[in-house]
Design brief:
By secondary structure, the protein is α+β, with helices and mostly antiparallel strands. About 50% of the residues lie in helices and about 25% in strands. It has 3 helices and 3 strands. It has a 3-stranded antiparallel beta sheet with strand order 1-2-3. Strand 1 and strand 2 form a beta hairpin. It comes from Streptomyces lycii.
Length: about 130
């Protein structure tokens, strides 16, 4: 008799644990996309090229990982791409919890990842 009462609660706890695990995985995917964006930007020669390459790298990383993100955005700080400078990439996107957790939960969650990459200190300035 007690097992009949506890089983729905155990199933609910299991679903919450699975949803939290999927959330952690999605945050890691977004952080990886930020790392790839920062690395791509740090290899660029101009700020315009850095922004374009960072956006492409982040979009490709999210697409290849199968992320359930909509409207990904990349904010980039390049500090002029001077040799030895640090490039910062912040990738954020919104995920619908219904698609994201596959459990029918209503609402949205914003996923954000930040990464840094150093510009080669021995590269030429031209």
């Amino acid at each position: 008799m007690e097992l009949v009462l506890v089983t729905p609660l155990l199933v609910l706890v299991l679903l919450v644990v699975v949803a939290l695990g999927l959330l952690v995985e999605a945050r890691m995917v977004v952080t990886d996309a930020a790392h790839q964006a920062a690395r791509a930007a740090s290899l660029a020669r101009t700020e315009a090229a850095a922004r374009t390459q960072a956006q492409r790298a982040a979009s490709a990383a999210l697409r290849e990982a199968g992320a359930a993100c909509t409207r990904p955005s990349v904010r980039l700080t390049t500090r002029g791409l001077a040799p030895g400078a640090t490039v910062t990439a912040r990738v954020s996107c919104t995920a619908d919890l219904r698609d994201f957790t596959r459990t029918g939960l209503p609402g949205h969650v914003t996923l954000t990842g930040t990464a840094f990459s150093a510009v080669d200190s021995f590269r030429s300035s031209s």
